[in-house]
Backbone:
């Protein structure tokens, strides 16, 4: 069964550095999402992406964050200048469409540690 | 803004007992509701998706119901097993945004 893949599984970076988290959504899916989960807390929506543009973003997704679909397969999340509080699991997800029957598929996540 | 609440936050039961997990949401204009399982340090695995026009979905020992008018969904797990120990999350889909509850952490004691 096709799946969403994320790389790397774990990234350690120093505060102030830029990081790029990579995701390969399922090939025929049209809607893409990034979520994060700080240790012990709930899964939080960051951004949704459709038709090569951001559809919706949360208040967490400030100017330090950006997303891109540079080619037909990758979907990336960039954090320009990481802060300690950016340490979290970042999950990518995709779905074939919106509407009644459009299940969401998640990747296994990238654990980002900012030191 | 959609608010999703899951009660209880944690649950511990002996093996064989049936589990009842609750999810409530404030905005009934959802496309669907999806239940996920999350194991520690892992991603989210989809268990069941209920379309907005449906009242319930079943898969094996799992049954999920949906009552949009009251803003509630319930996940039933029959005859629980130690392998069912995990955190269970519900997600409500409106337009381009999905809202998760904080989850119910289940421990099934052998």
Residues:
């Amino acid at each position: 069964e096709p799946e969403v893949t994320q790389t790397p599984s774990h990234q350690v970076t120093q505060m102030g550095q830029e990081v790029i988290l990579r995701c390969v959504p399922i090939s025929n899916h049209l809607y893409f999402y990034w979520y994060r989960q700080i240790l012990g807390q709930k899964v939080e929506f960051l951004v949704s992406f459709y038709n090569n543009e951001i559809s919706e973003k949360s208040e967490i997704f400030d100017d330090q964050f950006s997303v891109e679909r540079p080619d037909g397969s990758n979907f990336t999340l960039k954090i320009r200048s990481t802060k300690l509080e950016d340490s979290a699991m970042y999950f990518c997800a995709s779905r074939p469409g919106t509407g009644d029957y459009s299940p969401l598929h998640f990747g296994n996540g990238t654990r980002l540690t900012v030191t | 803004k959609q608010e999703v609440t899951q009660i209880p936050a944690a649950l511990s039961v002996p093996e064989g007992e049936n589990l009842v997990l609750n999810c409530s949401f404030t905005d009934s204009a959802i496309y669907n509701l999806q239940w996920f399982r999350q194991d520690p340090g892992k991603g989210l695995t989809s268990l069941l998706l209920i379309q907005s026009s449906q009242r319930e979905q079943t898969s094996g020992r799992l049954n999920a119901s949906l009552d949009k008018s009251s803003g509630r969904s319930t996940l039933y797990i029959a005859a629980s097993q130690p392998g069912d120990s995990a955190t269970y999350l519900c997600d409500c889909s409106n337009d381009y945004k999905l809202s998760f509850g904080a989850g119910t952490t289940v421990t099934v004691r052998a």
User: Anything to note?
Assistant: Chain A touches chain B through 29 residues (CB under 8 Å).
